[in-house]
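Q: Convert this sequence to structure tokens.
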Amino acid sequence: MYIKKATVTNQVGLHARPATFLIQKANEFKCSIWIEKDDRKVNAKSLLGVLSLGVAKGATINIIGDGPDEVQAVETLCKLIESDFAE
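A:
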């Protein structure tokens, strides 16, 4: 299991469009990926799960990977979040 913190810099947080980019990128990996905010943890490959967290700009979240490509997955998603979703 690999865990890393990321701070959401996007103006709208993890709302519809940025969440969709995040989920598409998460689905490129084989491992299980979770996003944790406060006491809630959701599947990073689920749009409803990610949106249900209500992550706003400036929020710090944990990205958690568990599986064969967990380090690469977590690092890639953290870079995507901190780059303001610019690929």
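Helices lie at 16-26, 47-52, 70-82.
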